[in-house]
Design brief:
This protein is 15% helix and 33% strand. The chain is an alpha+beta fold.
Length: 222
Amino acid sequence: MPATPRLHRKRFAPLAIAASLVASTTLGLSATGTLSAFTASITNSNNTAATGSLIMQETDSAGTTSCLSTSGTGNAYTSCSTINKYGGTTNQLTPGGAPNVTTVRLYNTGTTAVNGFTLAPGTCTKSGSGTGDLCGQLQLTLTCAPVTGGTAGTAVTLYNAVALNALGASKDIKAASATCVPPTSSTDYVRFTFSVQLSSSADNTVQAQSVSQPLVWTYTGA
């Protein structure tokens, strides 16, 4: 009976070899990528984004002297000393006399609309030999009016004969009048008129005094 095992091995050897060849061929096709399929794709090659800008510009009444927010660090210019809204020390005031009147223009030359607009008066400080407090005797009347196409709109009063030391921490100009918010424009603006007058009740204690008070305009973007 020794011949039987040899015949059995001979009968199945070709089948095993064939199966091995088929597996090798399939594996080879898979590895070399010769098997293919339909595909589809889209590449969006132009995906961009940008931010808008808020740029405040203040000029004198003639539009010849100008300060820009971009002149300072972080779009906040803190050294605009060329535009004096209280009239300066040359035009000296007397009790109940004529006021110092100054006008300025506020523009938004950026690309983003102004959503909030405030004016923050700083601390009024006096100097001079008098013993009285001139900050409490000088009164400010402030109005604003939009100017579109060279034509001024209706003026709105923001302060009406308020003492400089009582102006408060901040004035919400948009809340007072949305028409006084500068548009996004290089030509249209808001005109602010500052009128500073010495109270008729002022006495000799405020003679030979002067005052100084910083004013901070702030735009907030939409």
